[in-house]
Amino acid sequence: MKVLGIAGSLRPKSNTLVYVETALGIFKDSGLETTLISLRGKEIKPCTGCYDCVKKGYCTIKGDDFDEILDEIRVAEGLILGSPVYLSSVVPQMMALLARATFVAYWNDKFLSGKVGGPITVARRAGHNVAFSQLLLWFFINGVTVPGSTYWNVGMAGAAGARDVENDQEGLDTVVNFAHNMTQVMKKIFAS
């Protein structure tokens, strides 16, 4: 079984990346294969709503990193989406990726359905709930099972490029608990 973690922060010293890596570490320790993709340095063009994917079965927008990331999403049974929160929402690069992935999957073989996953949002003070809800809605519309934790998977960090994630033990513990729960759900679903 494979878990893909996507970190949406474009910052070189990313708190979001630390939270996603923390979750992936739990999966790896549980014997699952893990892959990490950072959107830093990647270009994801926005969906144009052209519906070519309905007719052709794939996204016809070319010249960016979407296809490479979509291939990884396709083969993973588990999916973690981590996004920083800048203006009470998921970062635009992540939303562009998710919109295009949904269109391709939904209008074709619905390859997202049946996966297990969950969101992680990271903000300095506020805005988590809106961004967290955006990601939950994406998981739900695509038929992805989302396990719970001891709290929402939100991190309190974000001092302009400083790695201050170490100051949020509760957030780290929540992500660890979530990863343990997700591992159990994946093993129950995919081991049969």
Chain-wise SSE layout:
Blueprint (H helix, E strand, L loop, with lengths): L1 E6 L7 H15 L3 E6 L13 H5 L9 H10 L2 E7 L7 H15 L9 E8 L4 H14 L12 E3 L12 H22 L2
Parallel strand pairs: 1-2, 1-3, 3-4, 4-5
Helix pairs in contact: 1-6
Task: Describe the structure concisely for a colleague.
This protein is an alpha/beta fold. 42% of the residues lie in helices and 16% in strands.
Structure write-up:
- There is one protein chain.
- The protein is 42% helix and 16% strand.
- By secondary structure, the protein is α/β, with parallel strands linked by helices.
- It has a single domain (2-190), classed as Rossmann fold (3-Layer(aba) Sandwich), CATH 3.40.50.360.
- Helix 4 (92-106) links the parallel strand 3 and strand 4.
- The longest helix is centred in the last third of the chain and has 22 residues, at 169-190.
- 42% of the residues are buried.
